[in-house]
Amino acid sequence: MLEPFTNEEARCEQANLPNYGAVKTETHKYVEYDNGEEELCDLAADPYEFESLHESADPALVEDLKARLEALKSCSEEGCQEAEDAL
């Protein structure tokens, strides 16, 4: 039997997560954590995001998603809408 987290347990779990930036397209989700870790999920093949593919993925795909994330990190005003539209 699974027991649900209490509010206090949930807060503790979230407190242990590093800060991160992420970009999500219709097919993939790419995450960069402040501790240097990366994740890449194929949302069609793995909709619950159990397996990270960043080490075995096509390097061109990873670079494209990294560039999109960087564009979103550094955008302002109308540039943000343009960066989002590119997704």
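That was protein one. Protein two is written in the same sequence-then-structure order:
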Amino acid sequence: MDIRNISQILSNNNIKDFKVDSNQEKINFGEILNEALNKVNDDQLYADEMDRMLATGEVDSVHEVTIAAQKAQLTLNLAIEIKSQLMEAYKDIMRLQI
């Protein structure tokens, strides 16, 4: 069993921290959303690449491919759920009587 493969997977986890700096005056929601969607896209592309590498024999460990696919599926499901919640919040705001 090759332990380096596990560390490779852990090093590929580049989740960005969305911490607000005290010197920062404005938070651009669009940029945060764009970065999060780019991360979802990157995970999807990485899973596709791992599938291709498994099919061509470049990757021997099926578990790495499975982990990449599950990670891509989870991030996509999270993005879909966040979109649904945002749409619900928007609809609630639009229904408010002023």
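The chain is about 70% helix and 0% strand. Keep this in mind for the problem set.
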